[in-house]
Design a protein that fits this description.
single chain, 398 residues, eight-stranded antiparallel β-sheet, 42% strand, globular
């Protein structure tokens, strides 16, 4: 089996519709998700492979395409496909470099409307909140005010590697890449047409917000599980429809990139805990009783949460998570909308300690690992990819 990296470059503005329906009550404009959901990109990849192999999609479920279906799967059966991403990439000094959302424990100190410094939040003292007693909430360093979230900023692999290092605590403000430097938003106003009457339909006015990537900005997806043979050939490049309005996007297929995020240095006698940062969104459905679950498989015990990651027991002390991502989409095979699911977004940070193994062993095991997902298909879609770094609990040390 071969592993590839697919790079998509939109040729026009693109629209990856949020989960709300067009006739949703409470808002007139539908925004666009960017980078797009992994299901959207995987659908484009499977479409590109199928069309390159001259598939008649009306007969795709027939016996003549059985060998290809074993490779590409069907609507909710991904066969042996596994993906990772999506990754936003930018051409810097002639080389494509992957960008990552700023970890959400990093915030900006604002002066005169400008970010002057980037500082790290840290777990605070146990307190009473809506989650219960003795819960540790994130807090800024003492005496610091006028801070802002960096959720709309990105950083390069080099910057993230330094942030993960044992000596790296934070980054400088000039290393932040604003989302506005990578893509712009374009509001659109449209109407629904009745083609039989050649007239606009009554009451079918809608507003959308498109995304237009800047020159030198693209989206990458890592794919593995394809066995290239006579029944399944891979296109080297091409143009395909991408997004809700089927706008054109160029794609190219290359050998898979090696991981650019290095393992953080960690002495064998390292003490303390780990800081886990999500690279891709993860599922975290609520517990059976409806209570909050910060990570898949964790449950509340006292003022913390307990659970397993890659077979080992961990205690989760604090979580810094962003606004939940709501993903739905359209099932083209069944001709119906998919159920909307909630995911914890990339960039979310979790402070935890291993209960049985050493911090150094846990770091080596979890860096660039994938959290076990509640549903097998989410595992294949690459949900819950994480990076790990050391964390010193200043509260307990003091």
């Amino acid at each position: 089996m071969t592993a590839q990296t697919w790079r998509f470059t939109p040729l026009d503005s693109c629209f990856f519709r949020e989960s709300r329906p067009m006739d949703a009550i409470g808002g007139s404009e539908l925004t666009s998700c960017f980078p797009p959901p992994i299901r959207t990109l995987l659908g484009a990849i499977r479409s590109a492979i199928g069309e390159y192999n001259e598939v008649d999609w009306n007969d795709y479920l027939e016996a003549q395409y059985a060998a290809l279906r074993e490779q590409l799967g069907t609507s909710d059966d991904l066969a042996k496909l596994e993906v990772s991403g999506p990754w936003l990439v930018q051409k810097i000094n002639g080389q494509w470099q992957r960008l990552y959302p700023v970890p959400l424990n990093q915030v900006g100190r604002v002066e005169q409307g400008e970010i002057q410094q980037v500082v790290a939040l840290e777990p605070g003292d146990p307190c009473h909140c809506d989650l219960g007693e003795k819960v540790r909430m994130a807090r800024p360093p003492k005496g610091l005010n006028k801070i802002t979230s960096l959720a709309a900023y990105w950083i390069t692999e080099e910057t993230l590697n330094r942030l993960l290092s044992a000596s790296g605590n934070t980054i400088s403000a000039n290393e932040l890449i604003p989302a506005g430097d990578l893509f712009s938003e374009e509001p659109r106003l449209g109407i629904a047409r009745d083609n039989r009457l050649r007239a606009a339909e009554q009451g079918q006015l809608y507003q959308t917000r498109h995304i237009r990537p800047k020159p030198g900005v693209a989206i990458e997806v890592d794919l593995q599980g394809i066995m290239v043979n006579e029944a399944c050939k891979l296109p080297p490049e091409g143009i395909i429809r991408l997004g809700a309005e089927g706008r054109g996007a160029a794609f190219e297929v290359q050998p898979a990139k090696p991981a650019g995020l290095s393992n953080p240095a960690c002495p064998d006698d390292a003490r303390g805990g780990l800081m886990l940062t999500l690279l891709t969104p993860t599922a975290a459905p609520p517990a059976a009783d409806g209570s909050y679950v910060p990570l898949p498989g964790f449950s509340r015990e006292g003022g913390s949460w307990k659970g397993k990651i890659k077979g080992d027991n961990y205690t989760l002390h604090c979580a810094i998570t962003g606004k939940a991502l709501r993903e739905g989409g359209w099932d083209m095979q069944a001709h119906q909308p998919r159920p909307v699911q909630s995911y914890i977004p990339g960039g979310s940070v979790f402070y935890c300690t291993p209960d049985e193994i050493s911090s150094s062993a846990a770091l080596k095991k979890l860096h660039l690992a994938q959290l076990e997902q509640p549903e097998p298909i989410d595992q294949q879609l690459g949900r819950g990819r994480i990076i790990a770094s050391l964390w010193t609990d200043r509260e307990n040390n003091s």
